[in-house]
């Protein structure tokens, strides 16, 4: 039986409105054995996770139709086991405040591969922040 940690067994959905970025990410990940699906349409991305197993959503944060944080929330609702990695060339408050991992553009192929592997190897999908801790007694 194949080890599920092998890239060939893992599907990554890449969502970015820039076709050149999608092509670069797809090429790097495909060369390293991952199965990659890519789209520039967040609504199509949501449909894809409803019809097939996607291990990781790798999405741009700043997109015209729907931002990546909103897409991540919708994907997590439709497919709770799908992990999320955001990427952005901008340091947006939405990305930082989401608590999700963020890969800053531009990135080297090795940075992309390391970030993807780290997320896929993590035990759980994104953990939503819990309520704030109560103030210490005293």
What is CATH's topology name?
Rossmann fold
The count of β-strands is: 5
Mean pLDDT: 86
Give the count of helical stretches: 5
Radius of gyration: 15 Å
**Biggest sheet statistics:** 5 strands, parallel
Count up the domains.
1
In terms of quaternary structure, the protein is: single chain
Helix-strand topology string: EHEHEHEHEH
Sheet-strand content, in percent, reads 15-25%
What's the arrangement of strands in the largest beta sheet? 2-1-3-4-5
Poorly predicted parts: 127-132
**CATH homologous superfamily?**
Response regulator
General form: globular
Helix/strand-derived class? alpha/beta
Question: What descriptors fit this protein?
Answer:
Rossmann fold, 5 strands, 138 residues, alpha/beta
């Amino acid at each position: 039986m194949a080890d599920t940690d092998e890239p060939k067994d893992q599907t990554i959905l890449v969502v970015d409105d820039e076709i050149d970025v999608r092509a670069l990410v797809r090429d790097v990940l495909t060369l390293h054995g991952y199965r990659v699906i890519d789209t520039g349409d967040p609504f199509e991305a949501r449909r894809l996770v409803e019809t097939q197993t996607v291990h990781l959503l790798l999405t741009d944060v700043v997109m015209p139709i729907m931002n990546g944080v909103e897409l991540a929330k919708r994907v997590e609702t439709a497919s709770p086991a799908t992990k999320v990695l955001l990427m952005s060339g901008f340091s947006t408050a939405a990305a930082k405040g989401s608590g999700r991992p963020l890969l800053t553009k531009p990135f080297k192929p090795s940075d992309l591969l390391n970030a993807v592997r780290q997320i896929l190897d993590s035990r759980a999908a994104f953990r939503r922040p819990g309520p704030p801790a109560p103030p210490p007694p005293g």
